[in-house]
Inverse folding.
């Protein structure tokens, strides 16, 4: 079984945020158990420099602080060659946000997950299944600005395959999908997202520690 070690540094500016986090009790002081899943699909158009992108993601925290958001999107992206690589830019399109507490489920070991959002006559659903050969480990660090403080954590990241249906389009297996589960012990203040009765994100609040 292939195992990878990676590390990441995350800077939190105002309401900007963090990465994921080996499940420990969420009641531990200053600790958040974090779960994350994402998937991305690309479809060509008649223009060789454009493609249609579909995206699905969910991010949940359990414990001190909280960062909970999920959503799906559809957008038109352009790609252009640059001196040092290829630039991809996505603009406009459709976006549906939701409360992951009501729309997202992940297995305890992070081997599978499902996102299901019902909104405006559409049912958006995505299923993730992890690849047992794609297990890796990560470390994460947070730096809180301007309030100061920091956080450390880590966990398991799994390469995954994802299938689903977003905005009425049936989506085959995505090559760009992953699942993460871990823990972060932090002094940082994270935004708490607020949702209306339909699950749409309406705003957020942020406590900056003294």
């Amino acid at each position: 079984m292939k195992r990878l070690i990676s590390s990441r540094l995350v800077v939190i500016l105002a309401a900007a945020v963090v990465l994921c986090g080996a499940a420990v009790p969420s009641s531990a002081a200053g600790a958040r158990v974090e779960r994350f899943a994402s998937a991305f699909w690309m479809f060509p158009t008649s223009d060789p420099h454009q493609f249609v992108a579909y995206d699905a993601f969910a991010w949940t925290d359990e414990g001190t602080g909280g960062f909970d958001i999920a959503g799906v999107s559809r957008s038109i992206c352009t790609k252009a060659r640059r001196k040092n690589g290829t630039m991809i830019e996505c603009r406009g399109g459709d976006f549906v946000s939701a409360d992951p507490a009501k729309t997202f489920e992940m297995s305890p070991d992070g081997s599978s997950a499902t996102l299901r959002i019902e909104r405006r006559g559409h049912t958006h659903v995505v299923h993730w299944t992890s690849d047992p050969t794609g297990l890796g480990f990560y470390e994460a660090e947070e730096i809180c600005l301007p309030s100061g403080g920091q956080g450390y954590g880590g966990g398991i990241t799994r390469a995954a395959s994802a299938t689903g249906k977003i905005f009425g389009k049936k989506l085959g297996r995505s090559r760009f999908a992953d699942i993460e589960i871990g823990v972060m012990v932090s002094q940082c203040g994270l935004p708490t997202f607020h949702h209306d009765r339909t699950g749409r994100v309406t705003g957020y609040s942020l406590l900056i520690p003294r």
